[in-house]
Amino acid sequence: MKSEDLTYQIQHSELENGEHQFDFQVDDKLFLRFENEEIRNVRLKLTAKITRKSDDFLLFLDADGDFEMQCDRCLDFFSQHVDLHHEVVIKLDETTNFDTDEDFVTLDRNDNYLDIAYFIYEMTMLSLPIRRVHPEDESGESGCNPEIIKFITGESHITEEDAEVLDAAESDENWKKKLKNLYNN
Ligand SMILES: [Zn+2]
Asked: Measured in angstroms, how far is the CA atom of residue 88 from the centroid of ligand 1?
């Protein structure tokens, strides 16, 4: 897997049998490389441990840190703390194939480098929750942008009935388009 971005490349051909550790700071650049705009302000501390046994590599990824993702309800971004782990078996073979099982890939033995960016990307994206909404504060108040909440419900304070209106807004794509236009004007 060749790429312009060499940040996450490991020269596996130089690795002796046994365990090796590499540390990285992961930021937005990695996600922009995959044209992903779902998360931003990424600050992850990543450790990659590679155990080599001749043609087999066991890759352990461990990351913790923060990023921001967009709220499905008010479209503001909110911060999320994550603690991520991922494990991949990489086998040197005739061709590179990252499209197999997500935990098992093959790498062309003539490629001397292993680019782990894709695995970091996968690990992070798989950790994202299906429902992405601002967490509530200690008193149970929505952390959403109050202006937008007022715009959706007509009130600045969320009542029981408003919760249903907000749930509907969250899953309404047309509503989101409207809201986006509002932001852009
Ligand atoms: Zn929100």
From this structure: 35
State the Cα–Cα distance between residues 126 and 128, nearest whole angstrom: 6
Distance of CA 149 from the midpoint of ligand 1 (Å):
8
Alpha-carbon span 35 to 52, nearest angstrom = 31
Compute the distance from residue 184 Cα to the ligand 1 centre, in Å.
17
Instruction: Compute, in angstroms, the gap from residue 179 CA to the centroid of ligand 1.
Output: 12
pTM, two decimals, is: 0.83
Q: Where are the domains of the chain?
A: 9-126, 146-184
- pLDDT, position 91: 94
Angle at CA of residue 83, ends 19 and 115, nearest 5°? 45
The single-letter DSSP state of residue 97 is B
pLDDT category of residue 77 using cuts at 50, 70 and 90: very high
Q: Residue 78 C-alpha to ligand 1 middle, in angstroms? A: 7
Q: Which of the two residues, 149 and 116, has the higher pLDDT score? A: 116
